[in-house]
Amino acid sequence: MLGCRLWQLERLLATHRPRLAAHLARLGVLPTTFASEWFLTLFAYNWPTAWVARVWDLFLVHGAVAIFATALAICALAGSECAAAGAGGGDLWRTVG
Description:
Elements: H1 2-16, H2 18-27, H3 31-41, H4 49-62, H5 64-85, H6 89-96
């Protein structure tokens, strides 16, 4: 199930954030590297409790689409921050991790 969800995230990134997906591919970074922990814990591992509670509320109401939307939003924000700073792959890890 996790592998399927990670594949779906990879496809969603390619569709909705193609430049970020291409950049990650050039770096050899797969979504499994950063998103496995997100999907296994529903973001509870390293995010603020109040924020996680909101994500869980959305998940309970909307299902898996809320988890994918959250993951895409995090990736988009991280990609924007790294691009604005002219950062390489290492800064992406600090941003999303």
